[in-house]
Specification:
With 330 residues, this protein is an alpha+beta fold. 65% of the residues lie in helices and 10% in strands.
Length: 330
């Protein structure tokens, strides 16, 4: 068995933490400003958006906490460390997005029947300030949100804030020039639908990782085909592909090969690791080389539950009972 570590270098978590700290501070400033502005202008829309921003401050803080947990070294009890903390943070953030959607839809429904009076000019000023701040945070997080589900969930929270700010600006403009106050709940519904899509995606991806799903974009048949193209590799079976967290995919497999020397075997394994890393992004690999194939050569094996001590005792007791009964009848 060979445990491969084909390193390609990863972006330091310190940079992600720095961007999150910046986002938390600026978003908290926006929160205070919107609360003050909502009370001053009597705008329920701005106060509702402040509630949205409050959930974002909490989600950003949760994401930062998860990154710090993931940076802690592994132990004898947690051999992967706390990388999964990032996935749990993303799951909680995704569920929070779905909860925010419920609040938005409920408030929008109430306002459709009785749109509140709003000081539209003052509302527009606060909405523009919030829009600028959210755009700045979004730009800072955007460079890190594509490959990290934890940061992507935080990014979607801030994106929801940005869309909400745009919606409030549009509503303020419409109300200022037309007096059509029903624009506020209508735009709120549109914003809620956009947030809903992002929340469902993040939640689904976090659940996929927690269920040990194959990393997105990976075709196991294609992986097996690439590995068997290596000379002296006869077949590949018993494949497992999963993600420890969003940016740490892992791979294990049984590889049937019969090189003449250990040096040749090691060279073949290194070549397989290179293919897995460069073509499929697997930098954490475990390959079991064997000359004789296993009885089960399925590409993907079924993993049966092992018997518990109670079950083993029960089977042993039944076997002894049957054996004693057979001796007695003879």
């Amino acid at each position: 068995m060979h445990d491969g570590h084909y390193h390609a270098g990863n972006e330091p978590d310190r940079e992600k933490s720095r961007q999150l700290r910046f986002a938390i501070i600026l978003t908290a400033v926006v929160l205070v400003g919107e609360v003050i502005g909502g009370i001053w202008t009597g705008s329920l829309a701005l106060l509702s958006d402040a509630g949205h921003v409050l959930s974002d401050v909490m989600s950003l803080a949760l994401s930062l906490f998860a990154i710090r947990l993931a940076s802690r070294p592994p132990t004898g009890r947690l051999t992967y460390g706390l990388h999964r903390a990032e996935v749990f943070a993303a799951l909680l953030n995704g569920l929070a997005l779905l909860g925010i959607c419920v609040i938005i839809f409920r408030e929008a429904y109430a306002r459709l029947g009785a749109p509140p009076e709003i000081k539209s000019v003052e509302l527009l000023i606060f909405a523009l300030v919030g829009l600028a701040a959210n755009w700045l945070v979004l730009v800072r997080l955007g460079g890190h949100a594509h490959d990290d589900i934890n940061l992507r969930s935080a990014y979607l929270h801030v994106l929801g804030d940005l869309l909400a700010s745009i919606g409030v600006v549009i509503a303020a403009l419409i109300i200022t020039f037309t007096g059509w106050t029903i624009a506020d709940p209508i735009i709120s519904i549109v914003i809620g639908l956009l947030i809903l899509v992002g929340g469902v995606r993040v939640t689904a991806e976090a659940l996929h990782i927690l269920l040990e799903g194959v990393p997105r974009g990976v075709d196991l048949e294609q992986v097996a085909g690439a590995l068997t193209e290596v000379p002296q590799v006869e077949s590949v079976h018993g494949i497992h592909a999963w993600s420890i967290c969003s940016n740490v995919p892992a791979f294990s497999a049984h590889v049937v090969m019969c090189p003449e020397t250990e040096e040749e075997r090691a060279e073949i394994v290194r070549e397989l690791e290179r293919i897995l890393a460069e073509r499929f992004g697997f930098y954490h690999t475990t390959l079991q080389a064997e000359c004789e194939p296993c009885d089960d050569q399925s590409l993907i094996r079924h993993l049966p539950h092992r018997e518990s001590a109670t079950d083993q005792h029960h089977h042993s007791h039944n076997h002894n009972h049957d054996h004693n009964h057979s001796d007695h009848t003879e």
